[in-house]
Amino acid sequence: xxxxxxxxxxxxxxxxxxxxxxxxxxxxxxxxxxxxxxxxxxxxxxxxxxxxxxxxxxxxxxxxxxxxxxxxxxxxxxxxxxxxxxxxxxxxxxxxxxxxxxxxxxxxxxxxxxxxxxxxxxxxxxxxxxxxxxxxxxxxxxxxxxxxxxxxxxxxxxxxxxxxxxxxxxxxxxxxxxxxxxxxxxxxxxxxxxxxxxxxxxxxxxxxxxxxxxxxxxxxxxxxxxxxxxxxxxxxxxxxxxxxxxxxxxxxxxxxxxxxxxxxxxxxxxxxxxxxxxxxxxxxxxxxxxxxxxxxxxxxxxxxxxxxxx
Length: 310
What we know:
By secondary structure, the protein is α/β, with parallel strands linked by helices.
């Protein structure tokens, strides 16, 4: 299935910057990045608006606890009431991404957890090409949807660990509708130092001790970070003409413009000042649904040309 595709790039600024997600959106691994003007602008393309279901397509055998961590994150994006009072929260992080819509005529979307589709037996095999990701994404709804393909640690995906940790793209226009999609891989076995930093020792740069992950699962906590970046990109630049800076073929988006930034004072090799769970010692920066805690990336603020964190 033809598609536009934005990938999460693993880039290294200075000595080390973990996983720069370069969109039409994927997180690509590259040795150097050309300097781009620090301005994210709107390119007058279509944006996602109104009610949007986030549908989760599980490829491989995820445990119930792993599925709960990721689905609770999606549910947290729109959570209100008690969660909203427990700042910093996932919903307050999401509000930073929604600010982009003030620069367009469209209202921000209302995200909800949609369908959950399971393929535990890996019907397309355990070595996937980009076309396979598009085909899996097409199993979800084709209208008012973001279809998220999540691959388990024993599934290889084209470019995974070599040039990206996650990707977002879109389906072609058709009578059935047009949808955005995301792919995120579990890097626990294949490349945790690239796609799950700071919860694993990095391959390059300062070799500081890794932080403890809030869910106790290096691979899944890394997936949350990458999924957060891709959702921010898929909403603000779903079809290639939304908000980004740099070349259209390798744009920097709302979250991918802030690689390695998770708290104030972040610099290469240091994620920034974070909260620490006194009972587990795990590091996090946002509270989520059902008592969850997550580490979420910084969001680029086009008004200040700087990265903001919760």
